[in-house]
């Protein structure tokens, strides 16, 4: 990824850069800010003009050989010591303009639209952020952090992957309990109408998920059986012993991956008293028939498996026979995420891109900020309190020194919630402000001045 970004963006500016970071000369673009990051061996600068801006990390390598050996360049011969990473836009108008720019598809362009679905807290947004290389989607240890579908764009060489991060699949009853908007219940299903592939993310250390797919995931898969599905077991870092992963995979796939039984007789496992590896799915349930585009048949024949598949609280089937591939990853530690990304890039089919290559997400900068605030509220406040806070952006302004000035307004409806939000001596709100500020500075690669006002709603 870094290689292609470097290759694409170095050219317009590289003539002006010398090969040493200490003697940086900038041509037409303006230098917004300069900050040393970490050690003296690397320097991060933000450059841009009225239309665009980039953040560049200039690295000092021990020798030219070590630079060329560096994995960052991925075999591409760099021009100078410049490695470029696109920054997420902070200007709403420019972001809106970018979204309408004509996609700059190269000759031989390929594209793939992928939805990430799964139960709440499975790690969908963590994975989407890792695939993007930017923390633009909200992550927290509480459920229902993501409120609506959001798009991320990965452009690598001639391939573009459009990722749809979706809210966790849930029931209307739970939706009411967590004050969820209607979009949260409908968006995951909606996302499947627009994609070429679906990643079904399963939390491998969740005891319930280990024995089969949940009802909502199954119903999504059944309704969109024509969309190739990939099983992604996440949080494998927390699963011990590791052989348990095979057992979980078999419980979720029935041993059928990509149309063949990969379990083999020695690995047969019993799912709640049923030897799933020993059960052949009915012919019309096999992935081959799905590819032939006969989604309606899946629903009508599914009951054939009833006797063979475990029964849990009235849920008759929890095994999906049609997974094309299985990946085992740790999104948090970025383990095997690159393998998954490489697979997705390979799956991209000839076709023009949907977005201009500079687009990273369809979210506005304010929405990214609101997401980050929300994730820190969820992390720092107990039970239902963070779900009852209304947020709005009061100020969003670029200061004279290039810093981003943001004022967020938080409204609570109960005095008790206000007390918890502020914390003793303002401890909680200070923590939320500081962590949000740090995350925003990281996403926008810019200095951020953040203030939060907390208000009690007048009855
Ligand atoms: N141990 C471990 N934790 C993970 C991993 N991936 C995500 N998490 C954690 O799981 C929690 C939920 O992650 P999210 O990305 O918010 O999950 P989500 O599926 O988007 O959640 P919803 O918005 O509720 O749908 C966070 O605390 C993450 O840090 C992983 O690979 N290993």
From TrEMBL:
Keyword flag rRNA-binding: no
Gene Ontology biological-process annotations: ribosomal small subunit assembly
Organism ancestry: Eukaryota, Metazoa, Chordata, Craniata, Vertebrata
Protein name (Swiss-Prot/TrEMBL): GTPase Era, mitochondrial
Entry's family note: Belongs to the TRAFAC class TrmE-Era-EngA-EngB-Septin-like GTPase superfamily. Era GTPase family.
GO terms for cellular component: mitochondrial inner membrane; mitochondrial matrix
Entry keyword Nucleotide-binding: yes
Sections of the chain in a coiled coil: none
């Amino acid at each position: 990824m870094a290689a292609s970004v470097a290759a694409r963006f170095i050219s317009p500016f590289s003539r002006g850069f010398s090969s040493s970071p200490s003697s940086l000369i900038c041509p037409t673009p303006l230098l917004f800010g300069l900050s040393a990051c970490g050690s003296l061996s690397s320097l991060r600068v933000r450059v841009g003009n009225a239309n665009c801006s980039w953040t560049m990390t200039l690295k000092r390598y021990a020798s030219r050989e070590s630079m060329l050996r560096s994995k960052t360049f991925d075999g591409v011969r760099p021009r100078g010591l410049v490695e470029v990473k696109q920054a997420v836009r902070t200007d709403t108008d420019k972001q809106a303009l970018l979204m309408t720019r004509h996609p700059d598809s190269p000759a031989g362009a390929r594209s793939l639209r992928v939805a990430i679905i799964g139960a709440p807290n499975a790690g969908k947004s963590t994975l989407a952020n890792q695939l993007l290389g930017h923390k633009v989607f909200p992550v927290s240890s509480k459920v229902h952090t993501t409120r609506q579908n959001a798009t991320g764009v990965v452009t690598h060489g001639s391939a573009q992957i459009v990722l749809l991060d979706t809210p966790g699949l849930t029931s209307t009853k739970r939706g009411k309990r967590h004050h969820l908007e209607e979009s949260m219940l409908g968006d995951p299903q909606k996302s499947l109408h627009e994609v070429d592939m679906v990643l079904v993310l399963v939390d491998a250390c969740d005891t319930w998920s280990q024995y089969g797919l949940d009802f909502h995931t199954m119903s999504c898969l059944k309704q969109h059986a024509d969309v190739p599905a990939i099983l992604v077991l996440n949080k494998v870092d927390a699963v011990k012993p590791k052989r348990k992963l095979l057992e979980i995979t078999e419980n979720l796939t029935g041993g059928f991956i990509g149309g063949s039984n990969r379990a083999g007789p020695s690995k047969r496992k019993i799912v709640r008293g049923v030897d799933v590896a020993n059960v052949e799915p009915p012919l019309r349930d096999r992935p081959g028939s799905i590819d032939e585009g006969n989604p309606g048949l899946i629903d009508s024949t599914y009951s054939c498996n009833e006797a063979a598949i475990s029964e849990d609280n009235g849920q008759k089937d929890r095994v999906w026979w049609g997974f094309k591939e299985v990946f085992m990853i740790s999104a948090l530690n970025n383990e095997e995420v690159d393998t998954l990304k490489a697979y997705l890039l390979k799956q991209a089919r000839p076709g023009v891109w949907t977005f201009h290559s500079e687009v990273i997400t369809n979210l506005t900068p304010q929405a990214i900020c609101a997401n980050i605030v929300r994730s820190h509220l969820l992390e720092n406040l107990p039970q239902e309190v963070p779900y009852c806070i209304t947020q709005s952006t009061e100020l969003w302004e670029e200061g004279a020194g290039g810093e981003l000035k943001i004022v967020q307004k938080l409204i609570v409806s109960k005095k008790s919630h206000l007390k918890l939000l502020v914390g003793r001596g303002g401890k909680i709100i200070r923590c939320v402000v500081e962590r949000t500020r740090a995350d925003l500075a990281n996403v926008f690669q810019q200095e951020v001045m953040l203030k939060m006002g907390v208000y009690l709603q007048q009855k």
